Structure formats: C-alpha cells, structure tokens
Amino acid sequence: MSPPKTYFLPLLFFCSTNLAEITTIAALYLLWEFEESRKPKRRRVWVHDILRRRSQLGEFHHLLQGLCLDDGRFQTYFQLTGAMFDDLLTRVGARIYRQDTKYRRSISAAERLSSVSLPMTSGQAHR
Prior knowledge:
Layout: H1 5-15, H2 19-38, H3 49-52, H4 54-57, H5 59-67, H6 71-78, H7 82-96, H8 109-116
C-alpha cells in the first residue's frame, strides 16, 4: 500500500536542504511509485457464486435432464420431440458453441439452444 502523496512532499523538504539529497529522495520515490503501479491489482469477482453453481442449481441441469427421460413431457415443454431437438442441436450447435476460458466455463450449446427454444409464458403474445 502506498503512502499518501500529500505526506511525502512536505517530508521531502523537511529532511534535507541539500538539492542532491532531495533529488535522490524524489527519484527513489518515483521509482517506488512505478514499482507499485506494476504490481498486479486485485481483481473483482469474474463469475458470481450463483452462476458458478449453475451446474448444481440450474434449470437445464435438473429439469431438462429429467424431461429427456419422458419424451411426452419433453415435447410439451419444448414443442419439439427429443429427436427434433437433437437434430436441431447438430445443425446449429457449432454456430452457438462458445469456448471455455481459464476464468469461466462457457454455457454449452445444448443449454444455449434450450434457453432459446423455451416455451413462451402466458404474458407473451404468440407470433
């Protein structure tokens, strides 16, 4: 942690009246400030804890995995059969796939497709 600059400059003039010493102290201070600025800064949270636990708590990983076992309920939920969903996924999966990074796991193509093809709620108009 760096000391406040307001304390350093008055201290500089009280320490010495020799111009060479003042210059040396100022140079050392600037060098120290430069080194402090190069230190890695603490990053904020990249992925929120709720989103990090998506695989344990999310709708896709719970509800939809259960719907895959019952084709009738799957079709009621998505207005697609399981085979039609898989066929659509093979057609568009490469286009909607995102790569994982070292900071976060990406949303899978199947999860992306399921969120796009979710049924409309009663408040939304049919097109």
